[in-house]
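User: Can you predict the 3D structure for this chain?
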Amino acid sequence: MTQAIFKMRIRKGDTVMVRSGKYKGKIGKVLQVHPKDNKVTVEGVNVVKRHNKPTQQRPQGGIQELTKPIWASKVGLLDNVAKKPSRVGFKTAADGNKIRLLKSSGKEVK
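Assistant: Here is the predicted structure, written as structure tokens:
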């Protein structure tokens, strides 16, 4: 059984808004993209606390905060003018390059 690699329309460094769930309405920067899992890691979203036992390397132990990935379908690229999340589409330029577009306004994504 082979694992599917999903087409990711959102890239590392994009500013996105969460569309649904516990963090709905939160805005953050994409830190990591996980195409095999169809997930993205967004700064300040889905932060969990991990309790670490004391070990020889870390004798203190303690509580560590980690940012976990969320489903890519739950986030949308932020349209700065409308302040709303938008879906991403593609257009082929005259020189043959693919350009990402915001579906809501039709503007190019830089």
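The chain has a mean pLDDT of 92. The chain has one domain: 15-53+62-102.
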